[in-house]
Amino acid sequence: MFRKYTALAAAILLASSMTTSLAECAVNQPCNSTCGDVCATYQCSVSTCNQICATCWDCNTTCSTICGIYPPADPTAVPQPTPTVQPTQKPSATQTPAPGDDYTTQSVSAQEQKMVNLLNQDRKNNGRTALTLDPELCRIARIKSADMRDNRYFAHESPTYGRVGQMLKHFGYRFSAAGENIAHHANVDKAQAAFMSSQGHRANILSTAWTKVGVGIVQDANGYIYATQIFAK
Description:
This protein has helices spanning 22-28, 35-42, 46-55, 63-69, 110-125, 135-151, 164-170, 188-197, 199-206, and strands spanning 132-133, 178-185, 212-219, 225-232. The protein is α+β, with helices and mostly antiparallel strands. It folds into 2 domains: 1-79, no CATH class; 99-232, CATH 3.40.33.10. Strands 1-3-4-2 form a 4-stranded mixed β-sheet.
């Protein structure tokens, strides 16, 4: 089920329709834990997480942003952004453009190029080769970011395009493997740092399964960015 919140408070896709109360979250986790860990592990709603941050945790950024880095996909565990692997498949017909296509005419922005540079520097620092920037992947990633912002959700599964493999097929992109990282953060530097601090997102960034990457960034009404990284081979 999808729960929609304001643009600043990133919506989280919950596998369960029930969320844990503020009191239960506070009891289940010590105050030296991070808001994101609590919200992901105990299925707290964004509003509950915000209350916890205000009363217990010393957050360096908005709680909704931290929660956004940990979108729970399973009610019993904190998930990792496992790469989606799909067979190469050519679409049988030309797809009808979706509303998000309004963003497809943009060239790679300075923010997007910066995130690619940071991503490849992180790969270099860990003994990996740089990924090739693919403008078409950037276009698709930007559409995903705009879709999250405009439809007020934060999840790997889009109500418009499905998961990353389905979305790539929708736009006729040929690939043999694909993965995705998403963030709702204050800026590019903080988003990339948050990715590298999260085990699953870091694994995606450093994986040797990919040869290409696309980054799509849009801003919300509060100046925060939605960033999507799509990896492919």
